[in-house]
Design brief:
Chain B: InterPro entries: Rab-GAP-TBC_dom (IPR000195), Rab-GAP_TBC_sf (IPR035969), SGSM1/2_RBD (IPR021935). The complex is a heterodimer of chains A (212) and B (695). Chain A is an alpha/beta fold and 212 residues long. Helices cover 32% and strands 23% of the residues of chain A. Chain A is built from seven helices and seven strands. In chain A, strands 1, 2, 3, 4, 5, 6 and 7 form a seven-stranded mixed sheet that branches. The longest helix of chain A has 17 residues. The chains are: A alpha/beta (212), B alpha+beta (695). The structure holds guanosine-5'-diphosphate and magnesium ion.
Chain lengths: 212, 695
């Protein structure tokens, strides 16, 4: 399938907050409470549509454990968007947000769009962090905020798509030099103009022949 | 997505996250004690210590039953019922995997090390993937329990052959193509015997059929290989040696090539048996404790070092090549910011031997190393319980450790034998320990485990409330055991007891090795151990032994993993300068994309039972203690063309590596890794050592 843009995302946050479940809910539209914990990083992709433009999201789901941090940092490289996730039922995952944010600011590109996500909103009876606290933190740090449930799919589409919309707006405003890949954005052939489309599986040589 | 790739995922009721595995901390602790380790005194009797053990659900084929008590009352006559063919055998209980079949068994075939000593064993022919193997295994000089635990015969029962170590005479599954000829002798007195002459010229000790059965043996052989009676010596049968070479079986050609066809120049003298060296005589051979595997191993080692020399010159030559511009298509794509590199053409054919770049010329020659069967010939069947017994002396010490490690590397271990053999491979049991020493060791380790576990089980609620470090640690373990191998029936389902046992093992370890604590990845390493051991304390000590090797992988400063990754980089630099140049241009020489492979030894890349097979080969360390790094190099090198042609950047490489999971041919990668290891030889081990890995 052709696309106008490709955005690279990264999902970060403490282990167990539901990062992998969010990704699976977004890419496969299902909730799988029992799966293997993430070691290193996992990968997912999905096509979305914004203003009639096809945008491909390439999403990296990282392991949250402290001891993997130095490795995880190498995955920040060239991400256009980040989902910073905490678990509304475990306050410590909220308390760690500042250190995650610092990590992201240090190792990602400064224009990376960060969405703060309070996950497991279905577990209202066990809530340990109020919605207001989440909103407050987001406001203080200039983030977009949503509460989601990977289980019921509540707000999951919105989390990924609103982030893409933000990035798209920045492109429109000329914040990014889209030819510079370190912003985590690639321009596809469906962007109009070139009139060329790329199909998965097409040989790289053929791709490059139509290169700018 | 990982979860999607690894088969059925079991649903639990809710994605609930409780602080403990049970909703109620109290009941959790209570039930914990109800399935605690077996009491130390029960451990002493080897039959009961598997208390609660469930028959291995995964066992693909139950082992050959251990030999019955040595029964040499020869009742059957010539061509009698002792022999078995697939159709009319008395051994239908020998379950086999699809492609492996025991086609002939004869009990009580003896070797006579001297005129007055006799070692009795079982002769069998095993067919696997159309290749015929012959094996003669002496009966274990004691009792071998169904889980592989060995109990020596009490000292007051004199063994049949007191002076000699029977393990030295075992013929571990040997492809018939390595047998040049069979000679039958019918002495005027005593039983008929058969002598095997190997392709190398070596003669094995005569196998005596004291109650007849030679004809049936030959008849069984003839069903599977060509036997030609020698014109000059009517009692000699040449294997597969027909006048017309075209009629030779392909397998035979492939295998004999290896042993006869390619001796190192000038080394031929060492290939022939030293003059006068003949098995079974009163001569030196027996008293010096020669072992067939050692003898074979030596000649193989010579071929190997020959291959290595050839190789190093080739490597040198390849290093002299200018680091070529990568394929034209690749460098064009490099300038193309639009290419989504990770989308490799899915049609890329799996790389054949020709993909091996600079060293493709020598790859076939590296085959004689024995570890990986030449040119796709199948390795012998996995190590069975019966064969395991043949590695044990009358006291139950392992004899022929090198041959054992080679066997495990080559063929793996039958599920039924894993529980015992793994404890040796991991180093929990010393190879030279006697069965009695092991029983004592196990009993004391069981007790020690009990004490260690009690340390955290005795933490009261009130104490835990004031002990945030502990609560933290516990909740991390809780969270992770619920996400470890739950698709395996053994760990599946809500409230699974084995999941709780895994939790106990990990919590106990986090106290035993308090400084290291619990880190993600450990649950992946511990789960297969528990699955195989079916016993909490044994799983714990095996895990502790494994962590002795892998501990550095989990150091928070990452030095251990950095050393592994640097080792991989050094190996790839040595073996494939062109790929290294490519990765350098892509700023991907950190090899972070191989992180998961090296951290948990490909646990996530293969199916559960394949992981068992792989790990036992890694622990056998027959070629190198770092086989997993050669494995990683093998995967990259196998796909080098595709990687360079698609001009993968770091993300592309990462995605490529993640997506190998579930799509790799374990046997092929192990073979390639072994080839690379031989190819790199000393230089490879040096490169790894220079990267900070222990030798
Ligand atoms: N009730 C509920 N449980 C969730 C939700 N998301 C994740 N979980 C549970 O939390 C556990 C950890 O999720 P996971 O995606 O592995 O976390 P990660 O370590 O951040 O990737 C899973 O086993 C799920 O059972 C959610 O939205 N609601
Ligand atoms: Mg995860």
């Amino acid at each position: 399938m052709s696309y106008a843009y490709l955005f690279k995302y990264i999902i970060i946050g403490d282990t167990g907050v539901g990062k992998s479940c969010l990704l699976l809910q977004f890419t496969d539209k299902r909730f799988q409470p029992v799966h293997d914990l993430t070691i290193g990083v996992e990968f997912g992709a999905r096509m979305i549509n914004i203003d009639g433009k096809q945008i491909k999201l390439q999403i990296w789901d990282t392991a949250g454990q402290e001891s993997f941090r130095s490795i995880t940092r190498s995955y920040y490289r060239g991400a256009a968007g980040a989902l910073l996730v905490y678990d509304i039922t475990r306050r410590e995952t909220f308390n760690h947000l500042a250190s995650w944010l610092e990590d992201a600011r240090q190792h990602a590109n400064p224009n990376m769009t960060i969405m703060l996500i309070g996950n497991k909103s279905d577990l209202t009876h066990r809530r340990a962090v109020t919605t207001e606290e989440g909103e407050q933190f987001a406001k203080e740090h200039g983030l977009v905020f949503l509460e989601t449930s990977a289980k019921t799919a509540h707000n999951v589409e919105e989390a990924f798509i609103n982030t893409a919309r933000k990035i798209y707006e920045k492109i429109e405003q000329g914040v990014f030099d889209v030819s510079n890949e370190s912003y985590g954005i690639k321009v596809g052939y469906g962007a109009g103009g070139a009139g060329q489309t790329v199909r998965p599986g097409e040989l790289p040589a053929a791709k490059s022949s139509s290169c700018c | 997505m990982k979860g999607a790739q690894r088969g059925p995922i079991l649903r639990t009721q809710e994605g609930q996250e409780a602080a403990c595995l049970c909703n109620d901390e109290e009941s959790c602790e209570a039930s914990d004690s109800s399935y605690s380790y077996v009491q130390p005194d029960a451990a002493a009797s080897n039959s009961s210590h598997a208390a609660g053990a469930v028959p291995q659900a995964q066992a693909r084929w139950p082992g050959v039953p251990p030999p019955r008590d040595i029964d040499v009352t020869d009742s059957d006559d010539e061509d009698g019922a002792g022999a078995a063919c697939p159709s009319d055998d008395g051994f239908s209980d020998i379950g086999q995997p699809g492609d492996t079949e025991v086609v002939y068994v004869r009990e009580a075939v003896a070797v006579w090390p001297t005129r007055s000593e006799r070692i009795v064993g079982r002769l069998s022919l095993i067919r696997q993937h159309r290749v015929l193997f012959l094996s003669w295994l002496p009966y274990a000089p004691g009792a071998l329990a169904p889980d592989g635990v060995f109990t020596p015969t009490p000292a007051d029962t004199p063994p049949v052959s007191p002076a000699r170590d029977r393990t030295a005479y075992a013929i571990h599954p040997l492809p018939l193509s390595e047998v040049r000829a069979l000679r039958r002798h019918t002495p005027a007195l005593g039983g008929q015997h058969v002598v095997l002459v190997l392709a190398s010229g070596l003669t094995l000790p005569p196998l005596t059929f004291s109650s007849g059965g030679v004809k049936v043996f030959f008849a069984a052989l003839k069903q599977h290989v060509l036997l030609a009676r020698s014109a000059g010596e009517p009692d000699t049968y040449l294997v597969n040696d027909t006048a017309d070479p075209l009629q030779r079986s392909l397998t035979s050609l492939e295998l004999s090539d290896v042993l006869i066809g390619a001796p190192p120049p000038g080394a031929s003298a060492t290939f022939a048996p030293p003059a006068g060296l003949m098995w079974g005589g009163e001569g030196e051979a027996g008293s010096r404790g020669w072992q067939l595997a050692d003898l074979l191993g030596d000649s193989v080692a010579r071929v190997r070092s020959f291959a290595r020399e050839t190789t190093s010159s080739l490597l040198a030559a390849s290093a002299l090549l200018p680091p070529q511009e990568t394929c034209g298509a690749g460098s064009a794509a490099l300038r193309n910011g639009h290419a989504e590199a990770a989308e490799l053409p899915t049609t890329t054919a799996p790389a054949g031997p020709g993909e091996l770049g600079a060293f493709e010329l020598v790859a076939p020659a590296a085959a004689p190393g024995g570890g990986d069967g030449p040119r796709g010939a199948p390795p012998p069947p996995p190590l069975s319980l019966e064969e395991w017994g043949s590695f044990l002396t009358s006291e139950g010490r392992v004899r022929g450790e090198r041959a054992l490690r080679q066997r495990v590397h080559e063929s793996g271990v039958e599920p039924a034998a894993r529980r015992e053999v793994w404890k040796f491979l991991l180093g929990f049991y010393p190879m030279d320990s006697s069965a009695t020493e092991r029983a004592a060791l196990l009993a004391s380790k069981r007790a020690e485990y009990g004490r260690l576990k009690e340390q955290w089980r005795s933490i009261s609620k009130a104490q835990a409330a004031r002990f945030s470090k502990w609560r933290d640690r516990r909740s991390r373990v809780d969270r992770d055991v619920r996400r470890t191998d739950r698709a395996q029936p053994y760990f599946a389902g809500e409230g699974n007891r084995n999941v709780r046992t895994l939790r106990s093992v990990l919590l106990t370890y986090s106290l035993y090795n308090f400084d290291l604590s619990y880190c993600q990845g450990m649950s992946d390493l511990a789960a297969p151990l528990l699955f195989v051991m079916r016993d909490e304390a044994e799983a714990f000590w095996c895990f502790a032994a494994l962590m002795d090797r892998l501990e550095a992988n989990f150091h928070t400063d990452c030095t251990g993993m950095q050393a592994q990754l640097a080792g991989l980089a050094a190996l790839v630099r040595l073996l494939d300068p062109q790929l290294t140049a490519f990765l350098a241009r892509r700023e991907a020489t950190t090899f972070y994309f191989c992180y998961r492979w090296l951290l948990i030894h490909f646990k996530r890349e293969f199916a559960f039972d394949e992981v068992l097979r792989l790990w036992e080969a890694l622990w056998a360390a027959a070629l190198t203690p770092h086989l997993h790094i050669y494995m990683a190099a093998a995967v990259l090198v196998t796909h080098r063309r595709a990687i360079m042609a698609a001009d993968l950047d770091f993300d592309g490489l990462l995605r490529f590596c993640i997506e190998r999971a579930g799509h790799m041919d374990l046997a092929h990668i192990m073979r390639t890794a072994a080839q690379l290891c031989r190819l790199a030889g000393r230089a490879g081990e040096d490169a790894l050592a220079a990267s900070g890995l222990p030798p």
